[in-house]
Amino acid sequence: MARRTDIKLKENIKNHREETFEEIYEEYRHLVMYFTTTKTGLKTDAEDLAQEIFMKVYSNIDDYNPYLSSFKTWLVTITMNHITDFLRQRKDFIIYDNDIVNEACDEPFFSPKFEYAVRTLETVDRDVLVLKVVYNFTHKEIAASLKISIDVSKKKLKAAKNIAKGEWLDYEKKFQ
Fold this sequence. Notes:
Blueprint: H1 4-14, H2 18-40, H3 43-59, H4 71-88, H5 98-105, H6 112-118, H7 123-134, H8 139-146, H9 150-175
Helix pairs in contact: 2-3, 2-4, 2-5, 3-4, 3-5, 4-8, 6-9, 7-9, 8-9
């Protein structure tokens, strides 16, 4: 079932309403920057990719079907596909660095405690946890966005929470 807000959003983009572009950018900028930064490791690449992704969203809005997925799921799918295409051209390995994410977003993205808790998670586990906890995605939206099954999303979230909980408690012992 399509959400009315997603249907209206699509119409506003198609009608080139400038305020809609600004609203979308402000609402989803951190989500896109999280993925572009954690996957590329460089602020300049992340910013360029984010700009390209938003341009792709606007130019491909006719491809979006609000009856099949939420706008945020479609946006993350475009984001992940665009990043994958970009990374195919790169040869170096990216290491997640919260300082780069914070710098790219021009503000702290995660609290130090949260960052400490997720620092040891595998990439997909961290992405599932962030989408669920920070962005309130459903497991269906996570599965569609990351191209995994709903069951895998649930299992990865459970495992990530268990690891993060232990790290969270460790942080409290060390720094509180």
